[in-house]
Amino acid sequence: MSSNQFIIRYLFKQPILVVLSILFGFSSAIFNGFSTILLVPLLLAFLGQPMPALDSGPPILQKTMSVFDGWSDSSRLIAMFAIVVLIIILRHTTNYLGTLTSTYLGQILTRNMQLEAMTMLLTVDLDYYAKTKLGDLFNRFGSEVYRVTGSIQACITLAQNIITVFIFLFILMSLSWQLTLIATGLLATLAILNQFFLNRSRKYGQRVSIAAKELTNKSLEIMTGIRLIKSVVNEEAEYQAMKKFIKQRQKAGFDSTMNQSIISPINEIGGIIIVFLIILAGRYIFSGQVQSLSAILLTYLLILFRMLPFVGQINGNRNQLSNNSSAVEILDDFIRTDNKLIMKNGETPFVGLEQGIRFENVKFAYPDHDELVLQGIDLWIPKGKMIALVGSSGAGKSTIADLLPRFYDPTGGAIMIDGKDLRNYDYKSIRQNMGIVSQETYLFNASVRYNIAYGLTDATDTDVLKAAKRANAYEFISNLPEGLDTELGDRGVRLSGGQRQRIAIARALLRNPEILILDEATSALDTVSERLVQQAINELCQERTTLVIAHRLSTVQKAYSIVVLDKGRVVEIGNHEELLNKGGQYAKLYSMQFSAQVASQNGYLVNGNENAIESQSQAYLSYEARSSLNTLLGSLRLVADGFIDTPEEQHELIEESCASAMQLLNIIERFDEKNKFSRDLVSQS
Hints:
It is a multi-pass membrane protein. GO terms for molecular function: ABC-type oligopeptide transporter activity; ATP binding; ATP hydrolysis activity. It comes from Aphanothece hegewaldii CCALA 016. It is found in: Cell membrane. This protein is an alpha/beta fold. It folds into three domains: about 5-335, Up-down Bundle (ABC transporter transmembrane region fold), CATH 1.20.1560; about 355-580, Rossmann fold (3-Layer(aba) Sandwich); about 595-685. Helix content is about 65%, strand content about 10%. It is built from 22 helices and ten strands. Strands 6-7-8-3-9-10 form a six-stranded mixed beta sheet, with helices on both faces. Strands 2-1-4-5 form a four-stranded antiparallel beta sheet, with helices on one face. Helix 4 packs antiparallel against helix 6, helix 6 (about 135-175) runs antiparallel to helix 10 (about 295-325) and helix 6 packs across helix 11 (about 325-335). It is elongated. The chain starts with a helix and ends with a helix.
């Protein structure tokens, strides 16, 4: 779609305001023309010059003055003065109403364009955000929209100015068609000269758009990456890079402004030349009307002088349209949805899970990529059970988690919910019944209450506080300066990582989801924070269908089933004990977290030498001992730091501490047994 078609399409969305703007412009032009016609007779009457000087003039002057035939000189002067004043008042009134209407129209169109752009941003798939720079989005949603609004207002003003010029041309034709043809030819020559600068204006407008986009991108990079910039002491390099982009934007804007500034003096000089040539031609054309020559030429030149500024405005409007045409094209491409991926919604509302979720030979490749990220995933997630996904980075864990809420659709195969394809469900109802807690929790720069109750309009303070207590977040929320009303800053910067996670868990608890997705929710936390968050997660997962992506394998040992992924394929499925006994990929991952290559439930894999067997056995038992000891120390730390208030919680922690101590004692006994087993194995070999 061309830039002109885009502008016309938006103008047609507000036909009443467009018509009113043009009508007011037309009325203003009519009043402008008649007030100009009457100025010369009024001046002659004021100076006491005889009116017969106009009797041999053009018909339009004769008809205008015939209204005052038989009037006395003083009455004619007063009447003409009153009419001119009235017409000028009406002209300015209609001009004001036209400006008011066109300004209001511009604001409405700006609002509509931004709302349409926001609708597009909220509708398109996540892949669009993965491929588009954040600075580009800000630039298009902000400055480009306002540039397009300027083009639309310039288009309306252009129409008003063209109407005004045509009315003046009609009056000029009535005065002298010969002079008007000459003037039109001269004005056409001036327009051709302006076209050269209009073509340059389009190029400069494109440079301004590119420079503004790059400047916005760099500004956002610096603001979002300021911690990294300061940590590596790279402020000077970023300053120099920013300085370069600012200079580029400044130069592009300067060149564009200089090009626009040339148009006005060219039009003014051209207008003076046209007037001079019109005077010479008028002396020749009206040479037979010597008596009325001065009055006719004066009227003609006065109207021509009044028309020339509108001709200059037309050229200025054309220049503005040309300069902003690149912004129109950018915004048109931005708002359109036919060139973007938009997920087709299903019709069946999701009302609850009855059996479970099944992945059937699911394959997936990201849009515009040929490589399959998932290669034939078969997976069963029973209702009310916890399924854990483990594997190295790039194995496809997060991709599976993204497919479940339909952030993406499978390239092949299907995800079935209670035997029905996920794509047949209304994805909004699916997501409303899901809770997602990820490693990087996003919090709005708003109150604690707003962040916990986000998306729920009917949540009360009682509901919010109840969810906060269940998420182990109530205590630190109570210690905040304004409690639930405390503003958290951008992305929750005023909270620690563990506190942000507990806010996210409270948000999920408040939504009471039937399906839960936990994407490495504790991987970046310290021991105490992990303990508190894990307790909140355990509360959250009760009687819910849960999909857990885990980096720390210690957090998924109690999962109903653990799915091991490698390069987009399922390589192992089983519970913690079963997978350790297999001695396969899970056992390797389990062992690698504690500086060993292999670990098994029985604590041995033959490598052919005593040191290898002994180190493998010690690695496994070392992990078991440290896990129990960390649990014991974590419980004692919570009590010592005053995080536990109620006697019931203290009693529960004491029991857990006793259990951990007993487990640690058992590990020591097993360690002695395994040392004996290793020595026997080596002696036999």
